[in-house]
Amino acid sequence: MSTPSDALGDEAAGLEASDLGLAYGKHTIIEALNLSLPQGQVTAIVGPNGCGKSTLLAGLARLHTPSQGHVLLDGQDIQRLPSRALATRLALLPQETHAPEGLTVSELIRFGRQPHQGWLRQWSEEDQCVVAQAMEAADLQGLADRSLDALSGGQRQRAWIAMTIAQHTPLLLLDEPTSALDLGHQIEVFELIRRLAAKGRTVVMVVHDLASACRYADYLVAMHEGAIIAEGDPRDIVTPTLVRQLYGIDCTLIPDPETGSPLLAGIRRASS
Amino acid sequence: MNSYSSSDVAMKRSADRGPTLHGPAHAPNGTWCLAWSGNGGQQHSLLIDRRGLAANLLLALGLMASSLAYLSLGSLTVAPWELIDVLAGGGDPVASFMVQELRLPRLAIACLTGAAFALSGCLMQTLARNRLATPGIIGIDNGATAFAVASVVGIGVVIAPPAMALAGAATATALTFGLVGGGGARGYRFIVAGIGVGAVFGAITQLLLARVSIDVANSAYPWTVGTLNARPSNAVAALALGLPLGLLAALGLSRALAVMRFSESVAKGLGQPVNRRRHQALILAVILTALAVAVAGPVGMVGLIGPEIARYLSSSRSVPIVASALAGALVMVLSDLVGRTLFTPIEVPVGIVTSVVGAPYLLWILLRTSRSLA
Amino acid sequence: MPEPATDMVLLKAAGTPPRLLAKALFLAGLLLLACLASLLFGAGDVGPVRALTWLLGGGDDEAHFVISTLRAPRALIGLTVGMALGVSGALLQAVARNPLAEPGLLGVSAGSAFAVALILVMGASAATLRVGVAQIGALVGCLCVLGVARLRGVDGDPIRLVLAGAAFTGLLGALTSLLLLYDQRAADEIRFWVVGSLSGRRLDDLVAIAPGLLVAGVITLLIARPLASLALGERVATGLGHQPKLIRLLVIFSVALLVGSATAVAGPIAFVGLVVPYAARALAGPDIRRTLWLCLLLGPLMVITADIISRLLVAPSEMPLGVLTALCGAPVLVAVVRARRLPSL
Lengths: 272, 374, 345
Known about the structure:
Chain A is an alpha/beta fold. Chain A has helices spanning 53-60, 83-87, 105-111, 125-137, 153-166, 183-198, 210-216, 234-237, 240-247, and strands spanning 15-24, 27-36, 42-46, 68-73, 76-77, 90-93, 171-175, 202-206, 219-224, 227-232, 249-255, 262-269. The longest helix of chain B has 36 residues, at 93-128.
């Protein structure tokens, strides 16, 4: 914990789903799901394609109105919160990001302050402070005036995460923050996420790759066909049986010699 | 657990009470920060984008210069120094009539319609996140024109053209958005569906004109391609009232529009009630288009060119609302000036001038190398 | 038993299935009815009964005059224009591999119309000259849109190609309007023509366009087979021993001949080339060799029906034909665009 006014840390906030159901029209994706996210930790949601993990994240971020049940933020139903109040407590990085041509990194990060600003309060010392810290946290100081179009994939993704950091919320929801990045850039982003959690933020991310999820998450939520089939510390819950349930593959799990997180070895299609 | 100390910031704040103009040390790059404390001791601040301000000033200057040219050039040239005299009420009576009775009202109408078209173009482009989604291209102009022509040629209903234009614009918009269904305003499909809707309304306009005598049809012809000649006075009044209100409303939406340029979920994540704002912007764009079409007919290309100029001059930090309106007025004034003077004694309707200029530009946008537009 | 099944598939692929033949016969019947209706109905005093009496051998001089000099040529021209536009749409869509490629939408008709307006303003008025110029204009328009799109790598994107075509059409339309403003005499001559109509055409026009249509027809017959294999992709077509570039050029040439002829006679009529192949594909499947035959029937059917309606709807005055084709074509356009996945031809 570095400086006293640190934009990275904040009081934790509890996010939970109770009896949550999410549907696209008549097509139900998730039914009666209960989940409580551990505060100040990194939670990874994993599962096969189409298991509803991104839908769940969208539901938690109020991008999707529940067909049943509630999402509670510190005990309050998020559907009842004003858009802006929610945005000061919960930041979201969707999978699909798209920025206007020519926008620079610092301009993008400043948009993260919008929920805290108003017509007659367009810029304050606090804004300046938080933006500078977000930029520092994401290691972007040298790139502040570069156009987003001119960045590498990893840098661009860090800039987007910096924007959500600048929102200065206790909760961060990231939808596949490392998809479409190569291995080096993935590690760049994951380490940034770890740093955020170390400062006390609660991070929830949807991750495609089970091994990275095990390596970087404190808490794993495994989903299959719209339901949670296991949750807990990855070292405890990831078993060959779970992997088989999730992805239909047989494998051997060995602990990473450095970190102890489970690694998948000897992967083959499940013999049924 | 570490917590963000707000007292630290509060202390720094209390150091500078009273209005100050922060220099670059405090304000973000490229902006001026105007800060003062209000009645209850709250801090107020305004962020002024230097490049945006410069763009607005430049466009305003350009508009003034072209207005001067507009007033002095034509079948009778009035020198700029005589203009002052004439505008003050003196001078040569013929010149006085020319300027005061003919050119000045027409100039005002050119500014109003140009600003309205460009502003609604800017709103549509932003809310659809597609530079091609201007009211002219997606058929809203044609819808408004068809309905307004119906009221002009007197088919059954007797409603003022502005109201009819509004009904037409709303119908065309609803059709275009309804036809693409749940897909929303994404991508080129939306645009092509709009072109289809526009074609239907274009055909309806032709149908209406075919039913009336050839003289009425001929006199309505310039209006269907867009001209500043017709200018029904009730429609002008409606526009003169509606444009300033629309501009204010658009400014009110500007912060929401700025984040709506990101993907929808980003905008929602930043705390904007996106759907509500989008509907507001859409309604505003439809109203502005209808008001302008009722005066000048479908001069839709201004809705494409105006915001493009404005965006080129302004920074990408915000949506250039005022700059779009100014640029639209500028384009309209210049186009009508060219249409009036280039082929004298023939007067080329302003809609044709803007099409001849705008269509190659549209082609250029479309054929620009990358797929970055999608 | 697997063998008979294979035979069945082969049979189905090789020959014309009987159901298609039935459909074609049905369409031919409809077309005959439409032609008859075109002779019977119209503005003026000669109503259906009088016309029918004359057709059956009786009747009076006025009916004779109206039918043989006004309505019959008009039906004949509708027949020709419809065939030309229907076939040209199918050809253009096959070569652009784009279900939205339509001569009217891509600016081919507009190019042709602009060329004609240009020479009319310059003082020419001979029918033969007009046809040639219209065909050259169509060729230039076609090459412009397809060529530029190909050059910029946009040709793989059906929707963007259409947008480029729409922009091109808009530009040419504005330029044509400019010409009309410039010359009032020419304007009066072509104002009605510019929106597309069959009224007031004479058989001379038909004679003037006959050679072009004949050439286009022969080319189409020759390239139908290689064109069908081009639908599988350029590489496959090359692998099958065809020359895609040559085929493409020939198709563009014959499209220009067809659209130019149709435009010279009837003015630019959009959407026929979209609706007709769309319907033909729905009836006969994607193979161009079959759709072309149906287009020959569906094209005239659409044009003649639209012409009859345009005569009756606002009688005694008349509505441009282009209005009606746009009214039924635009919904088809939207339907094609709305389809989840654009079928790439």
